[in-house]
Amino acid sequence: MYKIVNDFPHEIMNEEGLCISLYQPTHRHRPENKQDLIRYENLVQKIENSLNKRYKDQDIKEIMKPFKEIGQDRIFWNNTADGLAILSNGKEFIVYKLQRQVEELALVSDRFHIKPLIRYFQSSDRYHLLGLDMKYFTLYEGNRYGFEEVDLDPDIPRALEEVLGEDQTEPYLNPGAYGGAGATPMFHGHGGRKDEIDIDTQRYFRYVDKFVLDNYSNPMKIPLILVALDEHHGLFNNISHNSFLLSDGVKQDYKSLDLDQLKKSAWEIIEPFYLEKTKKLVDNYKVQRSKFLGSDDVSEVSRAVVENRVDTVLLEADEFIQGRINKETGELIREDTSGSDYDNVLDEIAKMVLENKGEVLVLPKERMPSTSGLAAIYRF
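RESULT FIELD:
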């Protein structure tokens, strides 16, 4: 009755009406994770109480079934990460296992609370990490908080033998008979064994490069870090057509590193890119605002987002602005007219910008270029 997902944004976020959002920190190991289920059950009770107040005409028992089911799934609670996010609309129930802690929240509203997920999934600090050797590759996706292996379809070839199959270069020593029938076979060669290995390695690396580029780098447009032995970096960089591949990589056998070492090494490479991108966005906002193509006024941005004029919006991580947007006029309605637990206009702005193919970036307070909770760059 529930589905664990990794894609963001998810189609469930396009819906309005009954929207249930649950966030809680979780723990990977005992004894800390013993408290997780108790905290979860308290949050579920809070949700049920809210539903009983506002949605008496709906089948609340049916709505709560997935919440109860996941609460009884011991395997799930024994395999948590650092945070948990659940979104439910009464029909669909999706779960995110997060690699970072989140603030505890249990909310029933007319729209989903997605700002923590935006902060987690935002592209500014996301990256792919490609572990590669001469025989096999593994792809990871991560951000500043951690990473996990990309779950590739089992039918996708990953090993050199699977990729090249019978197309591998023939061994360089082949028996050949000389001197007529019955003669003792003599061996002749077509180049050294190293040459053949290099040819197969190049062909395999080209396959890996194209697969990652077509299926991950081009669609997601995030940096790619290569983790491989030093001698493989030059070869892969020379044959690669991936413009997202960073010149700096981790020059070690990826199978020799544990996850913490990989995370540390990857973030040392990505952090300067993240800080530089953030700085460029903030500087660009200041320039565009001086040209009247940017604003930090919440009412102005609300109208602009309805008119599909917002290209990029920066949101302050922990800011909350009570209200909603009139979808017809763009008017910001400050008072709470729905009686919902939680109506944050910043969530609504974020959702609308994403729907309009704009960019949403969640920044800590100290990196924001404004004090209003948001800063928007307009398309026109």
